């Protein structure tokens, strides 16, 4: 992990916590029972349940460790409490237009919540970094994998 705070919305934090709780309280104990049962069947070298179970248990433990670190570093910010709504800050829903006047609606969320297909852009993504602090009418240039683009901020809303 890096030293940057892990900004996240309350809903995003709840989703991380729900995944952690589900893995820790439900999936992992069932898997441990399956591994114990498979180990009791004898030869472990050709026991598929045992081999797969151990592999899956390592995956779950790795994911639990990752989620625990992300939750510990999380700084929950509620966008509904944003006082300055005239600029683009964490949690803002921004309408931007490119040079061809194609508009897109994006919401700046935590990196763990990002989902480009739903218009959720991670706080540390290049586009989000370019839009930070922008006001309506501002032009922002961003370098994307497809090349450099310029966007105009058309609208800014908060939940």
TrEMBL record:
Superkingdom classification of source: Bacteria
A GO term for molecular function: RNA polymerase binding
Family matches, as InterPro entries: GreA/GreB_C_sf, Tscrpt_elong_fac_GreA/B, Tscrpt_elong_fac_GreA/B_C, Tscrpt_elong_fac_GreA/B_fam, Tscrpt_elong_fac_GreA/B_N, Tscrpt_elong_fac_GreA/B_N_sf, Tscrpt_elong_fac_GreB
UniProt KW keywords: DNA-binding, Elongation factor, Protein biosynthesis, Transcription, Transcription regulation
Assigned protein family: Belongs to the GreA/GreB family. GreB subfamily.
Function: Necessary for efficient RNA polymerase transcription elongation past template-encoded arresting sites. The arresting sites in DNA have the property of trapping a certain fraction of elongating RNA polymerases that pass through, resulting in locked ternary complexes. Cleavage of the nascent transcript by cleavage factors such as GreA or GreB allows the resumption of elongation from the new 3'terminus. GreB releases sequences of up to 9 nucleotides in length.
Name this polypeptide is given: Transcription elongation factor GreB
Naturally occurring in which organism (per UniProt): Sphingomonas pokkalii
């Amino acid at each position: 992990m890096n030293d940057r705070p892990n900004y996240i919305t309350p809903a995003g934090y709840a989703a991380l916590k729900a995944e952690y709780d589900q893995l820790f309280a439900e999936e992992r104990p069932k898997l441990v029972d399956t591994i114990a049962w498979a180990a009791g069947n004898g030869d472990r070298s050709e026991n598929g349940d045992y081999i797969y179970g151990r592999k899956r248990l390592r995956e779950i433990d790795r994911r639990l460790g990752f989620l625990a670190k992300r939750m510990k570093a999380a700084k929950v910010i509620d966008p509904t409490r944003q006082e300055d709504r005239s600029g683009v800050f964490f949690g803002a829903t921004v309408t931007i237009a490119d040079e061809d006047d194609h508009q897109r609606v994006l919401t700046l969320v935590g990196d763990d919540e990002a989902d480009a297909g739903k218009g959720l852009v991670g706080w540390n993504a290049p586009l989000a970094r370019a839009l930070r602090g922008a006001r309506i009418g501002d032009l922002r240039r961003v370098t994307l994998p497809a090349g450099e683009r310029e966007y105009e901020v058309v609208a800014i809303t908060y939940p």
